């Protein structure tokens, strides 16, 4: 019967594109990885990779086996994490990372309740872009993240939606776009766009690059300041833009296609290694539906 090591070698070879790259990721010599896959093929009584080319290519059988192997490995990791959490040792310190575009004041009541239930737990708060928070969760630098939903959430993170935040397009009152109505999206391409990007240069899945002239920042308050200085147009959460809109320094982009804004879902994420602990379950329950109308 096939083993977890065989399935790991199989899946990581697919992910990395070669036996040698899989060996490097697993910290093993290539011959061990190759033998694991050969043994898996023997156990399955079929060939999983076509080896005639420079790089291994999945056969039809390999394509069919891949999602099952991925699911089993994900469940195996979840089982390991659950076993580690059986002692349920509440950590003495919990770090919570929050995307700056999410209104912190709506979360303070939740924090007060958590402190009441766990008075001896030290809380640390960090702010970063949503993609940077996913990276920090991967490295377990933070234990809970509150982010704008991304299309690609790693399988080792548990998550649920806690509501949404309204976004819209904004520009400085002095910007040329403020004095005209854009009849279509091409009107936006003619002016610089201000866009959120993570510190490792990843762009959010809902922050679409429209203009060929783009400046980047890693949080919405920097985008707001760049917009107020007239450097371009940008997509901002309404609560970030409201004060500047009320003062007249910032305006919603005048558009013939009125509804360019949207509701961005907000998720709470926790690493599987910690999500089974009672304190994190309580935190999820307190955050649940927090930003829903």
Task: Summarize the structure in short.
InterPro entries: LysR_HTH_N, LysR_subst-bd, WH-like_DNA-bd_sf, WH_DNA-bd_sf. The protein is built from eleven helices and eleven strands.
- Rg, rounded, reads 24 Å
CATH topology of the largest domain: D-Maltodextrin-Binding Protein, domain 2
Helix tally equals 11
CATH class of the largest domain: Alpha Beta
Instruction: Please summarize the sheet with the most strands.
Output: 9 strands, mixed
Bulk shape: flat
Class from secondary-structure proportions: alpha/beta
Mean pLDDT: 85
- Low-confidence blocks of residues: none
Extended strand count: 11
User: Which oligomeric form is depicted?
Assistant: single chain
How many structural domains in the coordinates? 3
Distance between the termini: 52 Å
Helix and strand element order: HHHEEHEHEHEEHEEHEHEEHH
Give the amount of beta strand, in percent. 15-25%
Q: What is the share of helical residues? A: 25-40%
Q: Based on the structure given, which CATH architecture of the largest domain is correct?
A: 3-Layer(aba) Sandwich
